[in-house]
């Protein structure tokens, strides 16, 4: 049987390693990983509505997981800002979120606060499809 990458197994229903024993699909095992979910390098359109903001910001993710994402932006939001994200990943997902890191002139690390069960299933399926495509490309190279 072909060995599958842990990130693929994770999004295929496998519960994965415990926190602190994460796996980044780009670099392999990570001893001090704080994330609960593996992240994938994927650009997904996102519309961001900031708490108290007037106009939405349209941008894309640079990485994405079941627990959050990273958004590249020249003008990032301050850490602690509450957001509503409209994410186009396997359908349109509406996700309340919070900025956890602010990297001036680079972007924001964003943590998802909660998700509807059907949105979590759709995102997990989308991420599983991305992981399978990445694995297929890696085997062809």
How would you describe this structure to a colleague?
With 141 residues, the protein is of the alpha+beta class. It has helices spanning 6-11, 117-140; strands spanning 22-24, 28-30, 45-50, 57-64, 68-72, 82-88, 92-103, 107-112. A six-stranded antiparallel barrel has the order 3-4-5-8-7-6. The chain has a two-stranded antiparallel sheet with strand order 1-2. β6 and β7 (92-103) form a beta hairpin.
What's the topology here?
Layout: H1 6-11, E1 22-24, E2 28-30, E3 45-50, E4 57-64, E5 68-72, E6 82-88, E7 92-103, E8 107-112, H2 117-140
Antiparallel strand pairs: 1-2, 3-4, 3-6, 4-5, 5-8, 6-7, 7-8
Descriptive key words:
141 residues; alpha+beta; Thrombin, subunit H; two-stranded antiparallel sheet; 21% helix; 35% strand; globular; disordered N terminus
What is the structural class? alpha+beta
Question: CATH H-level name of the domain at 45-118... which superfamily?
Answer: predicted glycosyltransferase like domains
* SSE sequence, one letter per element: HEEEEEEEEH
How much of the sequence is in beta strands? Answer: 35-45%
Largest sheet: 6 strands, antiparallel, barrel
Cα-atom Rg, whole angstroms? 15 Å
CATH topology of the domain at 45-118: Thrombin, subunit H
């Amino acid at each position: 049987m072909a060995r599958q990458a842990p990130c693929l197994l994770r999004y295929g229903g496998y519960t994965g390693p415990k926190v602190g024993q994460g796996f980044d699909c780009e670099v392999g095992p990570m001893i001090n990983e704080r994330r609960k979910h593996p992240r994938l390098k994927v650009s997904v359109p996102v519309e961001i509505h900031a708490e108290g903001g007037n106009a939405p910001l349209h941008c894309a993710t640079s990485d994405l997981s079941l627990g959050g994402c990273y958004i590249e932006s020249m003008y990032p939001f301050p850490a602690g800002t509450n957001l509503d994200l409209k994410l186009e990943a396997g359908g349109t997902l509406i996700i309340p979120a919070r900025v956890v890191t602010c990297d001036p002139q680079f972007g924001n690390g964003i943590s998802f606060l909660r998700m509807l069960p059907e949105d979590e299933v759709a995102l997990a399926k989308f991420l599983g499809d991305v992981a399978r495509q990445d694995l297929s490309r890696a085997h062809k190279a």
